[in-house]
Sequence to fold (504 residues):
Amino acid sequence: MKQQDGEEAAAKRAKRSSGAAGEDRLSALPDDVLVLILLCLRTIEAAWTSVLARRWRGIWGLLPELRLAFFPELRGFGDALAASSVPLHCLFVAGRRGAPAASVSDWLPAAAPRVASELTIVDIGRERSANGGGGGEEAEESGVIELPCFEKATSIWFHFHLRSVGLSLPPAGVFARLTDLYLSGVWFIGACDLGEAVSSARCPCLQKLTLQDAWELHNLVIHSDSLKVVVLMKLRGLQQLTVMAPALEELSVMQSFVCDQTQQPVAIASISAPQLKLLMWVDVYDPSSVHLGEMEQLKSLSTIFAVYGLEMLNDACLMFMSCVKVIESLTLTLGYMQEINDYQYLMEDLTILPEITSQHLIPRTNGHSFGACSFHVLRICPGIKQLIMDLSERFIMEGQADECPPGCICGQPPNWKTEELTLNCLHEVEIQEFRGSEHELDFVKRLFSWATALKRMAVTFDCSVSKSMVKELSQVFRAFSRSEICMEFYVYHKKVKVLYASED
Fold:
């Protein structure tokens, strides 16, 4: 009897097991539960589930976020977008290089009514031509992206590295919720003017506008009541700039104005921004054609000065800074060429700076010593209370040397190592991306002797500095320091800056 009961139980278990194997219980779940399952997968993996059964074919289109990283084939993507009305909080597409821009235009109209927050498209375009540039014909070959109106999107980012993609703006429609617009590496094509497209009438909520490596933008006129930040960098042909923005707080203009056939700069600008607090100007400047208006709220100024080279390189910087008498913070980038031995030392041309309380120095040295030029700057602004030294070399190109050759003149004039300097108002120093080179240590040692009233110094070590070297360098700093100075050291842990805890 027991044996018979055991055989019946086994048969029942086998029957249940057989039924489970043939039954698709997942497909019986409601859509919202299936969406929760697909959210655990990458977007491309979620799309692959369409082949499992008819029930799954449209489920991935219901996802609130779609991230297609280097998705090899966008065919049918527009149909998938159009099949659902679920709001998209994030649509991220990274096209493979060489993919035709027209393929993006195929599905953008379907995406426009669905994107309710962020739209990001990157890396679509052909390889750069042999002459390193681009042109209308090249943009035409790679295609044109026709941007429809995204009425619900809050952020639109187009980042194309190769500057061979044409961008046509919609002639009508209101980007009612757009707050952040970023366009990089595009040629502006079509009748619609960018200034018109970002105006208050069509972008009533726009707060940040960034244009970088853009072409065919000769006359930019911006009238906006909502803009707070405008960044214009390498616009490649800008001749006239008009900004009327009563709420604007930050404006950056860098390497954008063109030169005429005689290589003379062409710059006509009119800026009306009474609430402007931060101004970065790294471009040609002539007060007769560049009118910055009243800047009574201006607190921070940023520009660049060439340490070696031809005098004309710094004409714009000197004229620009002469217009500002008193300001809270000055950010001064000190630029070095890689080869300097055949050029003139230009720091003596810098004789006066605005009256400031905070000095932010950014030596872009290409491996050269920055002690002499930094000493010169500090000597003409002895009343500063805060000094920030940014020693990162973000602009060193691949293959460039990170140290100057033997016999280089960058240590000249040498008087900065012996001449006395008193910075008796300097209470706080912050040094960023410290590597521990001989040039850096020489400067820091002298800085301790100049800053007689220093209360705090914070040092962030570059991520390339080893753990053992961090320990050694922190001990060197303490040897230079005095007992009344609070020393703080920071390192990077998984790309996050954290306070360094000594093992001693």
Observations:
- The chain is about 20% helix and 25% strand.
